[in-house]
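Could you help me review a protein record that somebody else here produced? This is what I was given.
***
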Amino acid sequence: MSTPRSTTLPPGVQHVDDPHTGLATLRSRGTGLGTILLAPGFTGSKEDFLEIFEDLTSVGWSVVALDHRGQYESPWAADYGLQGWAQDLCSMAAGLEQPVHLVGHSLGGLIAGRAAAGYPWESVTFLNSGSGPIHQSQQDRLRLLVTALEHYSMERIWQAKVAADQANGLPQPPTDILEFLHQRFLRTDPASMAQMARVLLAGHAQDLSEANGQLLVAFGIDDPDSWSWQTQVDLAQQWRARLALIPGAAHSPAVEAPAATAALLAAACIRSDADRGVRNPRSGYAPGMRIVTPLEPTPAAIRRARKTVSDQLWAWGLSSIVDDAEIITSELVTNAIEHGGGVVELRVAALPHRVRISVMDGSPEVPQVATDRGLQVGGRGLALVERLAADWGHDVGPDGKEVWAELPC
């Protein structure tokens, strides 16, 4: 369960019943970049995303968070299932400012995966959401909940949960937040909650073969109880998606690490071929964040890589190093395409006081800095990387090599 730190609406955020689906939403208006549509998980709601609204809107995005049908303030329905929840997302998206980027948290990610082929999304992000069975530690709890929903009232189940949390010494949220969680639980359709639990127990494998838009798999690195980090890494690799590790977060990054999560989404949702990127430097730099972007080994990858790095640095509030970072990125990617081999990956890592930009390719050949135009990397060579970077180097492994450079921040 995601537990918001506050239910106070940020400036400019309004309650709106969506005219196309009737679902309850929270909305804020941006300045023309498009819309980020946020889908919550099991036992969650639109309020789970409140802390990232302001940061996303301030850099230009319109933001919409919803309650799924049968969840909290949205209408109940005659039946529930992945297809119906997914269709709601597609129907809602048609009435929003285009382009639309879909973000699904936990169970919302399973719904987003089903919706991915049903609408021309600009991107689809899976936030702490995997593929296949959820972690074993959750399965007994889900089965117990399904049984309880068949025999007991929502109020009785809630009181049993509170008593169990207290007996186990779990910290309780402030009184106002606890009452919000209480009301959210009571107002959710028991049939919806039971079906969501069954979906999680069924362990559906994500099929993203026909998904539209760029794909991103992102997760809090301290999440012990949903899908394993390896499952999420495998999901990204299987479907050639971007991968991001969010430090300081467990299962609910939008609550536990809102600045870092907003900075990631603000950059990741920019089209790689768009002229406009993140142009208002923000905060959100979080040492420990890792972002991996697979690249096709073609000249077009150079521009995409430069823009990916530039947008992320602006979203992190590091505009002062963008120019040098773009040059370094161009050199490293060009070198990997021209002199490497196999899969090419761009990696950006937030370190304490430094940003590391690295490129992985399949060749074990160690790069050399020559005195006469180097390796012809982008026409300027690794000598230029050496001059611009605070430090640089390479690491060779069984699958190839990673050439990296670091800039102070």
